[in-house]
Design brief:
The complex is a heterodimer of chains A (352) and B (364).
Chain A (H helix, E strand, L loop, with lengths): L1 H10 L19 H14 L3 H4 L13 E8 L5 E2 L2 E2 H14 L3 E13 L4 H18 L2 E10 L7 E11 L15 E4 L5 H10 L16 H11 L3 E5 L5 H13 L2 E5 L7 H10 L13 E4 L4 H9 L8 E7 L6 E4 L5 E4 L12
Parallel strand pairs in A: 4-5, 9-12
Antiparallel strand pairs in A: 1-6, 2-3, 4-6, 7-10, 7-11, 8-10, 9-11, 12-13
Helix pairs in contact in A: 4-5, 4-7
Chain B lengths: L1 H4 L4 H14 L4 E7 H9 L2 H4 L4 E8 L1 H4 L2 H12 L4 E4 L13 H6 L4 E3 L3 H10 L5 E7 L4 H13 L5 E8 L1 H10 L7 E5 H7 L5 H7 L3 E4 L3 H16 L5 E3 L11 H10 E7 L5 E9 L8 H5 L14 H5 L31 H8 L6
Parallel strand pairs in B: 1-2, 1-7, 3-4, 3-5, 5-6, 7-8, 8-9
Antiparallel strand pairs in B: 6-11, 10-11
Helix pairs in contact in B: 2-13, 3-17, 8-9, 9-14
The chains are: A alpha+beta (352), B alpha/beta (364).
């Protein structure tokens, strides 16, 4: 039986099994592109808008909308705690959440380097599908291009998303006032260190996992409860907590004071940062957000956040102040004070 | 983190600071030699916590900063023109050469890789026999054993495609040069703990003897540094000038003899140009003739015109402690970490970059 099957495949191969890897033809817009989409993408991401298979999506939108876009490139594609697929969904979904919006529609575009194994592409697709399901968002339009070997890094993904802004959301740096408490939702620096540990081939005793997750339910829940008292939510992805706070201090024209001892870092992540000479405040996060909350509501907000799965390690890490507008001052572990700035270029490991 | 957190205890820090305040009666200038200590001083906000009588002066101990311009040009040349796989510690990549940094060479297509250990570079050489692999071996005595070991390892494995571009510098001759400079007024030194872990403390006795200046071998955690400062201040106030060892939990008088043996197997002491300063006699290591095949400068016979430093950069005066970074007219204006005019603005250990970064100045 098995002999017969394999013989039949040789004589009359199934088109979708023709290729173990993505080829240039898969991005040509012709037969191969259609076969790739038919055999995988459309089935997996099936929904009425996508099923129209038109040049673009036709949507009915009402009320205040948020719109965000992000491109994702990560090496390796699969890392402890996640892969580029869910990262691409969570990233845009989280950006919408930071606008106070529940994600509704997503666009999904791939730029694939020829030679990417089909199995890896499939794993990424499945992961995208699962992340979309968790976030309650549908992919309504997309694109696939293939570039020659050496002209890309396996796969780049762009997602754009549209979300409905919660009626009680009023999120803007303009709302930040001196006295606002600054709350960090979880332990920082996990994503960046997870990537670095595999990229550099460093083996730490405890595996560090990326914190990539969909923050939407938590953030929208907090907006529903605290409304206008939540002045700003933002996720400190690239550049880390330090860079984001500096940007906010400049944009809002307030001073910011935070304390090193109130910034939660998981033990293995802190150790890895020490070892590599990196400052966790500048390392990327994918599952953490910073909230600026009116002082009178901060304790209640913190308690509510700590009840959520994303907020168990939440802490008040500092506050906005009238002094030193535009400056972020960090109180060090021993109580000294220093100003912190944005990440200059890439964070490079120190010699000794 | 246990062995770190106990050296970052805020209550003990307060006690040390109180003791320093109680002990000090007049102004003293103390130089922390090592860039790692500069980093810790600024990162922990220690400078502003010290009594105003104490001025900390940031020494030349940032290996990235003192690597001469022509060596960076050589590294860039090897990577771009000779097609070698150029491996380096991370913060060396942003240091400007006369035309390009290694980061810019990488952007132009050169194969430049960030490594944590030179031994990884030897493995890269073994895995790529058709490529030349060069490790940019910078650093003080601290990184010398591992860099030397990589050469020994490559030789043992019979690899013909591995070499190092050596730019090692040594601490004691730098302290000597600083003390001999009439413009610098340093009352005491925090010597670099990690250098002494390798080399021991015995090299410092002649310096103490000759210049009558206290030298305290000091670690890098905030409490190490506060205790080191207290020990220097006590000596100064009591009129003593001795070698003391604050970092005794790691540093032994004789250092690490095995590591020293490895260093002297591969390297010998030579005169060395320090970027921003001058040629300091017997202040660096060169690869011994015995291992000439592993010395990239000999192997590739690079003939480059030695470029001039940017005259606007006051690196020498900064690193000798004659001027503070903010006394430089270019500081924070034309010279920033993303566009450094000279070496001390490059590495986060460099005096200017540390001041810039931790003073919260904004790029742009």
């Amino acid at each position: 039986m098995s002999n017969k099957t394999s013989k039949m495949q040789l004589q009359c191969p199934m088109p979708k099994l023709d290729f173990d890897v993505i080829t240039l033809g898969h991005g040509s817009g012709g037969v191969l592109t259609n076969k790739l989409l038919d055999s995988g993408v459309f089935d997996l991401l099936k929904n009425p808008v996508l099923d129209e298979r038109h040049d673009g999506a036709t949507l009915n939108l009402n009320g205040r909308m948020a719109f965000s876009t992000d491109s994702f490139l990560v090496s390796p594609l699969f890392f402890p705690g996640g892969n580029i697929g869910e990262l691409a969904v969570n990233g845009t979904v989280n950006d919408l959440a930071m606008c106070g919006a529940t994600p509704r529609y997503l666009s999904l575009s791939f730029i694939i380097e020829e030679g990417l194994p089909m199995t890896e592409f499939w794993d990424i697709l499945v992961s995208i599908k699962n992340a979309c399901t968790r976030a309650g968002v549908t992919v309504v339009t997309g694109d696939t291009k293939v570039v020659e070997k050496g002209k890309g890094d396996k796969i780049f993904i762009n997602t754009s998303g549209i979300g409905e802004i919660h009626p009680k959301a009023n999120i803007s740096t303009r709302n930040i006032k001196a006295g606002d408490k600054i709350i960090i939702s979880g332990q920082v620096a996990a994503h960046g260190m997870a990537i670095m540990s595999v990229r550099e081939g460093l083996e730490f005793e405890a595996q560090i996992e990326s914190d990539t997750t969909n923050l939407n339910p938590t953030v929208i829940g907090l907006i529903a409860e605290f409304g206008e008292h939540l002045h700003l939510v933002t996720d400190p992805t690239r550049g880390g907590v330090a860079t984001v706070l500096k940007e906010i201090a400049l944009a809002a024209g307030v001073g910011i004071e935070i304390a090193h001892n109130n910034i939660p870092v998981a033990g293995p992540v802190a150790n890895a940062c020490e070892l590599l000479g990196l400052d966790p405040l500048y390392v990327a996060n994918e599952g953490v957000f910073i909230s600026f909350v009116a002082a009178a509501f901060a304790e209640d907000y913190l308690a509510a956040l700590q009840q959520t799965p994303d907020g168990q390690h939440a802490r008040i890490m500092g506050e906005a102040v009238n002094d030193h507008p535009g400056q972020v001052i960090l109180e060090s572990a021993i109580g000294g004070k220093r100003a912190i700035g944005m990440l200059p270029g890439e964070q490079l490991p120190r010699i000794c | 983190m246990k062995y770190l957190s106990e050296y970052r205890d805020p209550e003990l820090a307060r006690q040390y600071l109180a003791e320093i305040k109680k002990t000090v009666t007049r102004p003293w200038s103390i130089m922390e030699v090592c860039g790692g200590q500069t980093h810790s001083l600024v990162k922990n906000g220690i400078i502003a916590m010290l009594p105003q009588e104490i001025t900390m002066i940031h020494g030349p101990g940032c290996p990235v900063c003192v690597t001469p311009l022509h060596l960076i040009d050589k590294a860039v040349h090897l990577a771009l023109e000779k097609g070698v796989v150029l491996c380096s510690f991370g913060d060396m990549l942003r240091v400007p050469g006369s035309e390009k940094s290694l980061l810019e060479a990488k952007a132009a297509g050169a194969d430049v890789r960030i490594l944590y250990s030179p031994l990884e570079a030897v493995n890269i050489a073994a895995e790529n026999p058709d490529k030349e692999v060069v490790f940019f071996a910078v650093g003080f005595e601290t990184t010398a054993p591992a860099n030397a070991l990589s050469v020994v390892d490559a030789a043992r494995r019979g690899l013909k495609n591995y070499s190092i571009l050596a730019s090692h510098v040594l601490v004691p001759p730098a302290i000597e040069a600083i003390m001999e400079d009439v413009d610098s007024h340093i009352d005491g030194f925090l010597a670099a703990g990690h250098v002494c872990t390798i080399m021991g403390t015995f090299e410092y006795y002649p310096l103490v003897e000759r210049f009558k200046v206290p030298i305290v071998v000091t670690g890098f955690e905030p409490l190490d540094i506060l205790q080191g400062i207290l020990m220097v201040v006590r000596q100064l106030e009591q009129g003593r000038a001795e070698v003391e060892n604050q970092y005794a939990r790691i540093v032994r008088e004789e250092g690490n003899p095995e590591a020293q043996k490895t260093i002297y197997e591969v390297f010998e002491v030579t005169d060395r140009l320090w970027r921003g300063m001058e040629i300091i006699p017997m202040s660096g290591y060169r690869v011994k003739d015995k291992y000439a095949a592993y010395d990239a400068t000999q192997k590739f016979r690079i003939n480059l015109v030695e470029a001039e430093e940017n005259p606007a950069c006051l690196a020498g005066e900064i690193m000798k402690g004659i001027k503070k970074p903010f006394e430089c007219p270019e500081f924070g204006k034309t010279c920033k970490p993303t566009n450094p005019l000279g070496a001390p603005m490059v590495s986060s250990e460099g005096a200017c970059a540390a001041y810039f970064h931790y003073s919260g100045l904004v790029e742009g």
